User: Which sequence fits this backbone?
């Protein structure tokens, strides 16, 4: 069971991470609304990037929906960047999930995070088979023109109740720590 406090906390953690990591520049706008209010917007070419954060008490799937169209490609690929769109976009999604992981580490000390992988958006219809305690989808608009979406799916293995303090902003650049 996931309490209302925990559901609200997962929502705030996602929103903070998405607003910090999905925009390319600090001044870029990032509007996030519940997908139920915005419509699905998925096309037959829509793909998703799936990432997982796992703990002893839950498994969280962050699923970022995208169409590799001109506006999305132009937004994320700089002219001098020799990497592919998918390589750049997977890195952005990984940073977003990493920001969520950092926030969740305050409340759950033992977390593991997967590497990102790309799937067809057709897999989204099967998320209910995981019997999630939380399933939320969002429409994301960057700079008024780049359309993404995201789904947060949390499967609880034990009762979850926490209140996240997302007011503290920590600046990190995603560097690795060596011990």
Assistant:
């Amino acid at each position: 069971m996931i309490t209302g406090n925990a559901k609200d906390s997962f929502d705030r953690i996602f929103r903070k991470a998405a607003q910090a990591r999905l925009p390319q520049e600090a001044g870029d706008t990032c509007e996030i609304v519940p997908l139920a209010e915005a419509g699905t917007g998925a096309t037959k070419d829509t793909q998703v990037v799936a990432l997982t954060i796992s703990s002893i008490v839950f498994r969280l799937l962050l699923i970022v929906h995208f169409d590799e169209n001109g506006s999305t490609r132009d937004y994320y690929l700089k002219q001098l960047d020799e990497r592919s769109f998918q390589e750049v976009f997977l890195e952005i999604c990984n940073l977003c999930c990493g920001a969520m992981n950092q926030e969740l580490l305050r409340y759950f000390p033992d977390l593991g995070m997967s590497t990102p992988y790309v799937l067809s958006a057709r897999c989204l219809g099967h998320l209910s088979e995981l019997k999630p305690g939380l399933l939320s989808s969002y429409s994301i608009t960057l700079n008024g023109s780049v359309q993404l979406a995201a789904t947060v799916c949390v499967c609880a293995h034990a009762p979850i109740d926490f209140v996240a303090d997302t007011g503290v902003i920590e600046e990190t650049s995603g560097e690795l720590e060596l011990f």
